[in-house]
Design goal:
It is built from 14 helices and 6 strands.
Length: 350
Amino acid sequence: MASIYAKNNILYVSWWDHYENKPKNRSLKIKDTVANRRTAKEFTKTLQKELDKQKELIEQNGLVKKSTIKEAFEHFKRNNAHKNFHTIKDYDRFYKKFIESFDENRSCTIITKISAEEWINEIKKLSLAQNSIHAYYKQFSHFLNFLFEYSYIPMFKINKDVRTKPEIKEKIIFTDEDITTMFNNLESKNANFKAAIYLLFYTGLRSSDILTMTVDRIDLKDRLINYYSPKRKKFKQVPIHKDLVPILKKRVKEISSGNLLNYESVENLGKAVKRFITKLGLINRSYSARTFRKTFITLCRSRYSMDATIVRELVGHEHGNTTDRYYNQVDMNKMKEELKKFTRPNIEKK
């Protein structure tokens, strides 16, 4: 039962916290007088009703009161072990930030609506980009839903005014002039890097996709590439653009077997592209390896008016409607025909 007591002529309230399974107390910050004791007793009655609700929730949901935040997060990681390694890194990045405020060795029940919203409000103050802050919130939201699902803590809803929102950034694509500059300066680069740039530009695929390509999955005769998409966890097949054929033929002849590109990770490929862009003096454009994908899609749709369903299939996007996703088998010959519309801009020097 919640009760009141006096200390140094100040009234305090004490109670048993069913979530943390331990006694708690705090000052009411009022003097010990007859009138204040009446007020304090009314407060304890209200508090006791809340405590009874706590106990009822625990008994109804079978809350795992003794599980620590660390134990719950390890459980969360086990359940999500199949996710993309970038997603796993995002979980770890969030958790590292989260336990700066929450002791990982304490019970999960210290995560309440109030403490959760306070944490979100604090991360909003960090000197980070809006999308970086939103990434913390998004992973926290995933973790919270997991805690609710497995009854580590009772369910609550984050106030909509507290939630973070992603920043919709400007769509940055390569200009025709910069595309010409890049391709005009590829001759001095090694075959590995040259093939990577051509693949990024002429396929619009993710960096993680082109790094899975192997020599044995390239059919130069029928102009087809088979690859595995780590993001979608699917094997895919796309046509090869005619301008890409000679580059691939030379690269296949050079290495004969194994991975088409010699980069250990997406990060390494991204750094190589960034160095190339910087060396060309294009550093103020906010370009990156991902810009090739955005440029390919924009040119396909806006300049060459290619069929939207085929463009999604070419770049490995999930189809947005039931018809395309489950019923429409996109014909490879039709994909090849549409791909012919895509041509590389070439600005002649004056």
